[in-house]
Amino acid sequence: MTAPTKPSPGGPSDPAASGVPLHAPVIDWFDEHARDLPWRRPEAGAWGVMVSEFMLQQTPVSRVQPVYEQWLARWPRPADLAKEAPGEAVRAWGRLGYPRRALRLHGAAAAITERHGGDVPADHAQLLALPGIGEYTAAAVASFAYGQRHPVLDTNVRRVFARAVTGVQYPPNATTAAERKLARALLPDEEARAARWAAASMELGALVCTAKNESCHRCPIASRCAWRLAGKPAHDGPPRRGQTYAGTDRQVRGRLLAVLREATGPVPQAALDQVWQEPVQRARALDGLVADGLVEPLADGLYRLPLS
Hints:
Layout: H1 15-33, H2 45-56, H3 61-74, H4 78-82, H5 86-93, H6 100-115, H7 124-128, H8 135-146, H9 155-166, H10 177-186, H11 191-207, H12 226-229, H13 249-262, E1 267-268, H14 269-273, H15 279-291, E2 296-297, E3 302-304
Antiparallel strand pairs: 1-3, 2-3
Helix pairs in contact: 1-11, 2-3, 2-8, 5-6, 9-11, 13-15
């Protein structure tokens, strides 16, 4: 049996050769199969796109959608959120996880209100200058909300590029300079098409080229995929990071925050002590929430969500 060979220069792993042939089939597939998600509708606007991008980080669409819709109904513009206490953002975040994202989104809303008259800026540099906004979110908002040409590298896109172009099963654990260079090389030249490509390649990774049980028979670029053409070699890089939750400080933090979210006023220490039996871990989790600005300690052993 002949061993599979790696793609040669100018073949599937060469961005200059791979980009253009990939664009049309992926975008055509997206035009037919894209999910009807509320943040993709015209009425969502740039604020709706920004809210969705904060919420979707490390959180599946099925969990995000109901919270997103409640959030936009309550705070349809950044100024509506900015005038509320940060703790209300944490309360409305519910059980989406990683609640510091709620504080960051509140901070971004306040900055948008103060610096940009309440309108999410279209300029990439201005987006990047907002508190809580990193390179990914700035590029995503500029691309998805304003149709601009930026590489948008989330986990799904990175996996599609790793397989289709680089010929490996999984991308590195952290985004590399080589991945960013590849993403820029693969961008269509025309702005609107580049924005469509960003959304389409992300959807392909979410629905077809998934981390497990990839559906190559449904993939519009299976015949061009470097990983598939190489015989789907197994991942031989560093172990992939798995996410655990049960028994971790994250779980304890979530339980403590749940008590505070459901309370109408300050909560005594005794009520928080009931959520977790192990006192050292419970205290560490509570201290971490305070340090992160998610919980505000008061006199007499009382705690509440932050007011400022």
